[in-house]
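During the reporting period the student researcher (J.K.) took over the structure-prediction task from the postdoctoral fellow and processed the backlog of single-chain submissions. One of the processed entries is reproduced below for the supervisory committee.
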Amino acid sequence: MNVSRIARIGLVAAIVLVGSAAVAFPVPTFTETVVAGGPGMPPPAQTDPEMDGRYVAYEYIPGLDGAPLDGDIKVYDVGTGLTTAVTDQGADDNIDQTAPDISIDTVVYQSGSAVSNIFAYNISWSNTMQVTNSVIDQTAPRISGLHIIWHDADSNGLMWHSFDMPQYANGPVPGSAGVEPGTWDIDGDTVVFAKETAPGTFDFYKWTIDSSAMAQKFGTSLTPAVGDVRLHNTRIVYTFGAAQDEVG
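J.K. obtained the following structure tokens:
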């Protein structure tokens, strides 16, 4: 996801000064809504949710007796309460579609049995586009606006694509070879990722999409492991520690 936007779904508490008197709005209340699953449902699994604006993308695994166990991608519209099948819109294709991310009205995900490739689905146009056509795994995509990044198993680095470029016109993220699993994200045109440069030393790097410069180091974490990097504006969060059970 990770598009920096001024307006987002939510409730805001504010104090407005009128003359010398302060007018306080009511304290916001929050409710929990079941997007998928819930009491009395059969045993499918819904996992890995990602949200931007009104849409929640997630992975759905049927898990029913006699039914395929491959993952599919679905989108829930918070505004209408409707769910859209991004994959398996007709019959089950028996192919794993996993690792969804969403930005505005575009969902990206990986799809494949023996080899995974990257796909994008536009909710507004109900259109699917294949982003990669590789014989080596392309996995774990992240999207922000027009830009996608993902992991290329051939180089053990990151690749990128912009929707204003031709299909399959993809390029490497400079300096990302050796990237740690799950340590990349994108916001706007800024890519971040982490690499272990020495035992117990993880350096964080940033790179601007379509820049000819190499990625620049901007921070270091001294820890046995890092993962789950997420970027928003000028800050990142990540898990760290031997069990990756702490957040930095």
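The committee noted the following: Residues 3-17 have pLDDT under 50 and may be disordered.
J.K. will present the remaining backlog at the next meeting.
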